[in-house]
Structures are given as structure tokens and as C-alpha cells.
Design goal:
elongated; mainly alpha; 8 helices
């Protein structure tokens, strides 16, 4: 019963968000964009900064980063590296990549993972970032239109 009550609470908070549907959807898209990048401890700060610069909702930008959660961190890191390595023409996996993925799997502290990526060198870090940017863009663009539709529907429902 407690879980159901909590879900209802968050549902009500979501539908009571105030603001222009465009601003809310833009903030959500920025949050989803940064949430797809392997920069775990910095995702929320970057998404809110993007929302400030481009006049999106800071609250929905912070909410959107939760697309990245402990259930999918391993997959986000794995596929961002794989995609980035393919784009950059890197061959195979290094022992460092295996170590980083093992740290993600064991849910190590996010700053330790970032330090290990930086320690691995520029090319590996670039592979993670390029892949994350591509995945983020691929997911954020359609999410803007999906959430624009949702927030417009919520506004119409609230106004009627």
C-alpha cells in the first residue's frame, strides 16, 4: 500500500507542474539527453544549466536525468562506449574497459568510475562521450515531442 501511495503522490506532483508545455518538454528533453551520457555525477547540473541557457524548465530537466538509474547504468556505459568506439574507429576492448564495466556492474561510487575513465586516456574518454552524445541526441529529440504532447494534454485537461 505504501508504494501505491507514493506513486500516486509523484503522479499528482507531475500533473501539477506549472509552466508552458514547450518549456516543460524542453527541460525534460535536456534531462533525458544528459541522462544518457556517462557522466553520472554531473548529469543533473548539466541538464539544469542547459535548461537555464535555452529557457527550459529546470525542474523537468532534473527529473529527466532519472532516465539514468541503477537499473540501466551498465547498459548506458556499455553501449555509449561501443557506439563511440565504432564511430572513432577503435578496435576491440581493452583491459581498462573491462575494469570500468566491472566497476559499473558492482555499483562503485560514480566519481571513481569517472576517474577511471579519465585515467584510461583521451581516446577511451572520447569514445564514452561521443557514444553518450549520440545516444542522448537520438533519445532526447523524440522525447521532446512526446512530452510536449503529454504536457499539452495535461494543460487541456486541467483547463477544462
Amino acid at each position: 500500500m505504501k508504494v501505491r501511495r507514493r506513486l500516486r503522490y509523484y503522479y499528482l506532483r507531475f500533473i501539477r507542474l506549472r509552466g508552458d508545455p514547450h518549456e516543460l518538454a524542453l527541460g525534460m528533453a535536456f534531462g533525458i539527453f544528459t541522462g544518457m551520457m556517462p557522466i553520472m555525477p554531473f548529469q543533473m547540473a548539466i541538464s539544469v544549466a542547459l535548461a537555464l541557457v535555452f529557457k527550459g524548465s529546470k525542474i523537468t530537466a532534473a527529473l529527466g536525468t532519472w532516465i539514468s538509474n541503477p537499473l540501466n547504468w551498465y547498459f548506458l556505459y556499455y553501449f555509449s562506449y561501443k557506439l563511440g568506439a565504432w564511430v572513432l574507429g577503435m578496435e576491440g576492448y581493452s583491459a581498462m574497459f573491462t575494469t570500468i564495466m566491472e566497476m559499473v556492474r558492482s555499483e562503485a561510487e560514480s566519481m571513481l568510475i569517472v576517474e577511471k575513465i579519465i585515467e584510461a586516456g583521451g581516446l577511451m574518454g572520447a569514445a564514452f562521450l561521443v557514444g553518450g552524445l549520440m545516444m542522448g541526441a537520438a533519445v532526447a529529440f523524440p522525447s521532446y515531442f512526446i512530452f510536449l504532447y503529454i504536457f499539452k494534454r495535461i494543460r487541456r485537461w486541467r483547463d477544462s
